[in-house]
User: Fold these one by one.
Assistant:
Number 1:
Amino acid sequence: MTVRVRFAPSPTGRLHVGNIRTGLINWLFAKGQHGEEGGVFVLRIDDTDLERSTKEYETGIETDLTWLGMTWDERHQQSARFPVYTQAVERLKAAGRLYPAYETQVELDLRRKVQLSQGLPPVYDRAALKLSEADRKALEAEGRKPHWRFRLEGKRVKWNDLARGPCEVDTTSLSDPVLIREDGAFLYTLPSVVDDIDMAITHVIRGEDHVTNTGVQIEIFEALGAKSPEFAHTTLLVGSDGAGLSKRLGSLSIMDLREQGYEPLAIVSHLARIGTSDPMEPAGSIEELAAAFQFGKMARHPGRYDFEDLARMNAAVLHAMDYASAQPRLQNLGADLGETFWLAIRSNLSRFADASLWARVVGGTATPIVEDQAFLSQAAALLPQTLDGETWHAWTEAVKAATGAKGKGLYAPLRRALTGEERGPEMGPLLALIGREKALKRLAGEPA
């Protein structure tokens, strides 16, 4: 059996770390299967809400997934499948599993309040099933349009969850779900099941907030004469303080993380490691993450999304990046000064764009920070004629012997004068890249 999973985002907003994590777990599970090609990752655009769905957000979904390396094997558009959903509706009606209900939202809310006041569960009482044909015609004559509910069998629906173990939902405690609104629009539940059947989805992997939905959907699978897929319900993300993710944590959309300079490999490594027994460190590739993925590594408590962890991941990705990978991006920044330059600066980067600063320090003009010109003049007089990667150590030893300066009092003034910065990469290779002519001018307090 070929594993087939699906990721079904709605094009009604930007993808954020929460729904990308769900998509990523699906991708890792599929691509981690044995065999040359692994499983199949299906991208299904859930655009049944025609009013809120936009082409801009749809394009954004594809851009984000591609940038993260989460390429898809198949792509489907739910808005193109309305006739298929209508056929399923007719089948459910014919089987007596879909029935019209005419209550307004106000009436339903009032009924729930009464039930709660009586100590009863706020479950729909199926009053619509008691309506006669004459009753329905009278309501429609008033201008009412029905919404359509799926009649649950009312039983214990059980499955073995890949993430949670044995699970069950008692559908006698649930209201018959609305599958079609008064305006004829399909709600999420029915198209999802129909598509999972038609697209031969073998595993549905989603957040644990869908556990109850799964009990309902398994009944719909059965009502349509189909075998339900396997399920995995993973824990949700919380903030580093244990509270739910919110705007106070900053922007969590993938687009904004990209614009803030986070690396795609850092983002997917971070999301793949959260809430697992794996170390919080970047993988060499997203394929490496897939090869190591196991539901058994995932904890039962919510994963904590910590920006500090992401920042460390991002720095680690940059520090390990080879010149061949960095070169095209350095070129786009106008900062490609060769492999020696990249190897000299990469261990100091927290964002790739920071390379521009060091390209300017090495190949452009820097304004020296001068506090003690006499000290710098003494140091300049001792600067060797030829500079290489070993010059810094020998030169600073000579300056130390001549001036008595040591520690920060020795190294910091030289760094500030030569780079115009308080901190940065190791000065050994940097000094050689700056060159003797520029170094002497900067030690003299001149921009160079």
Number 2:
Amino acid sequence: MGTIATNSLTLGYGDSVIIDDLNMEIPKGEITVFIGANGCGKSTLLRSMARLLKPKQGSVVLNGENIAKMPTKEVAQQLSILPQSPISPEGLTVLDLVKQGRHPYKGIFNRWSNEDEEAVLEALDSTNMLDLKDRTVDSLSGGQRQRAWIAMILAQKTDTILLDEPTTYLDMTHQIEVLDLLFELNEKYQNTIVMVLHDINLACRYAHHIVAIKDKQVHTQGRPEEIINGGMVQDVFQMKCDITYDPMFGTPMCIPHGRGRCLIKEAVAQSRMQAAKVH
């Protein structure tokens, strides 16, 4: 199982600091979800963990080594990332996309091996994409397309998987489909999975560990049932809410306050109107 941590990590763009002096260790073999307000640095932190963003200070440590000092191929054999809204070349088939996950294991003279073939077929089977392997990626539905990309990173055979908002632009059905798949894969292979999600309730349902980010630091982290409460949501998102429990899963469920329709208020108003007519 993969381990990933940050040591005094400072990130930013130009003179702007987004993450400041962050020390954090991701639980291995579990699903961790980053939450926080827009612009707080969730995706920036995830990109730095994949060595896509050079730190201003500090380091990311992957399986005991400073990731900045590791050879690119070695990093790619231990860690994979699915960026937000990835784009594939026009006309690329699902099979060819998934085969790209084997590139970290190929040298100049390396031929396609039985091990490569088995890894690709296993990835397609695990994501229920075998029947669609000859379809072009751009012909798939949103949920199918995400499953194809997840198959590619599974073929990469890494212990650590990073996903930046994997449910973006998906409808409710496909959001659940993708998150169910990731949860099942974690249970089967015990990969260390780190995701950025915007939906607190989905984060609570699927995460073993949640990291809430605010003011360039970790505001709080832990099991959803330990850290998700009205005070934390108010602090991190500037939003008042009530916290109840998901009736199906028993996980925390956030009910935000707002100005939408309130059926309870409508029912009370109707009752009063009826009572007034009687009198």
Number 3:
Amino acid sequence: MTGPLHQRIRADIEARIRSGEWPPGHRVPFETELMADYGCARMTVSKAMAALVDAGLIVRRKRAGTFVARPRVHAPVLNIPDIQSEIVARGETYAFRLLSRTLRQPDRDSPEEVALAAGGKLLALDGVHDADGRPFALERRLVSLKAVPEIAEADFAQTPPGAWLLEHVAWTEAESRISAVNADPDDARLLALDEGAACLVVDRRTWREGQHVTRVRQIFPGEAYDLVARFGPGA
């Protein structure tokens, strides 16, 4: 390839990524290694790496190094995505780790929990969705046992809570709120991120014929997820 050296470095790395030679999660050589390989200055390598970051092909992790980025899940804003199906469709191995499972009364100081419980109890479920053995999303979910009493006996070893609900409960209304946060120490540990790393948060509630079903907060590393909305002209 002719042209500036930083473009050739970028093209060489991009070719390795797109061919599968360097799969998602593969550690990219340190800048000092690339400087030696290409016989160039750090500025030249840094320019190539910055272009790869901007293209979403690599991610830099503080104190850990630079790695090939995992493909993002593109979720339509108006749909409820099934994380398991999205990960499997990308050819990655999916797993769900249930961290805690608690049957409890709603917090009386939380109007949202009281409304969700509707006079009954709540099933609180915390877990982590993994893609190819790496944390993909942290999930904290509350389910109304009054709306879905059978979930109290559900086994989530094979089917995660979200997928179980999609299969068993015909929701009729949903509300999603999307925000950006910096990972606190606990979330960073569970997601294998640096404390303060950028994350995307989806808070979602669903109803069935006006009855509250579930409330869930899903926290994704910023590099792993985005939301897509496509619009057309009004009638």
Number 4:
Amino acid sequence: MNDYYTNEDMLAYSGTLIVPIYEEDPVPAFITEALSCDLRAEIRRTSGALTTVHTLGKMQPNILCFVGMGKKDQISYGAAKHALGCAFYAQKQDCGCWIDAAICDALSPEEAARAAGFASIYSTYRFTKINAPHPKELTVTFFSDAQVEASVKDGIQIAQCVNHARQLGNLPSNYLTPEAFVEEARRLAQELSLSIEVLDRNALREMGAGALLGVNQGSGKGAYLITLTYTNAGDAPYTALVGKGITFDSGGYTLKPRTSMSGMKYDMCGAANALCTLELAARRQAKVNLMAVLAVTENMIGPDAYTVDDVLVSLSGQTIEVTNTDAEGRLILCDALTHASNKQAARIIDLATLTGACITALGERYTGAFTNAEPFLQALSDAAKASGELLWQLPLDEEFRQQLRTSTVADLVNAVPNGKGGSSLAAAFLEAFIPEGVEWIHLDIAGPAETNGSASAAKGATGVMIETLNRLLCS
């Protein structure tokens, strides 16, 4: 719950007040005068630094939480989200936020308000332990003399959809099973009046989605291709968001070591983020035609599980020799990419926690990007910069493609033993399933899909790229 008031009303607010402050700015005169002291030396102003001041009854706000915004010439919407997020993350009770103190030449009133709204939801999110009561949500009161309520609400809506993806990612895999994922997709489709198609094992077998079914063979749970469709741009072509939804990844018979098994519940974050990107577009009533194609299953061991040296026949008809059962994400994605193409998507963006090699190359903060359409990727890169998310293009060329065509029994191998540039090899595999004329971007979110926690966000799934993709799709 949120309230909106003017700066004059702020002086009568009795809770904790978040006060943004830049390195160049003095402490506001009304605060200095009310407290009868010079706080210049006490206030930390580097980005995200917090300084708590108890007013001891000298002002109506009983606590001032100064949050450093850094230098004005270095501020951006993304930097403002982080700095304000640090302040909101530290709050345990209802609080207020003085938006106008964040506004400067480099940060418009609308951007400051959107950043404040986003941070108030994103940074106060906590996953509630299983069977524990849900805590009371914080009430945040926003103060501004500008007409920014709509921007605050927009920031809140973005964060709510991002948090939906985080919540799905944080659920244990015995709670977010493939079947539970299907039910969540159905629930969302009903709520937002979206069309939905759910293809189960029988339907997948009938249509010939052998790559997805191959990965599913070791699981006692189902395999699904879920397609949700949002139409609000007339006869305009569709963009497809294709998501990897491995609800738990054991590695199959190429079994992961114990230390790599923990956290494999997050291997469905690509599907969750694709789903919630479409959700945000629908809630914003964006003028776009969009589909989310989600490949959902587990990768487990069992008497019927697929093994190394097996050959799978994909939905496209191309055959694949399995050289690594832990390279399963690209197998379920290739059938999902073909399904999206068969539904006449003109542009496809896939999201997947696909390769550890991408983390090795870029660390845990950057999304790796690959494309067959440079202008399309440039537009996405611009959207990422404007949203404050980190994106980096990695190479994709003929040498990587040729390494995948070395099988003596199939058209492709799903992985190159001891291959170098693993994330590029995975992207080259996926590219083989993109028809000519379809613009395509592959986003490897293996690094930034989850976090160990930061000054502005709780540990767990992050919902990475949802805001960026919406900025691209809605522009």
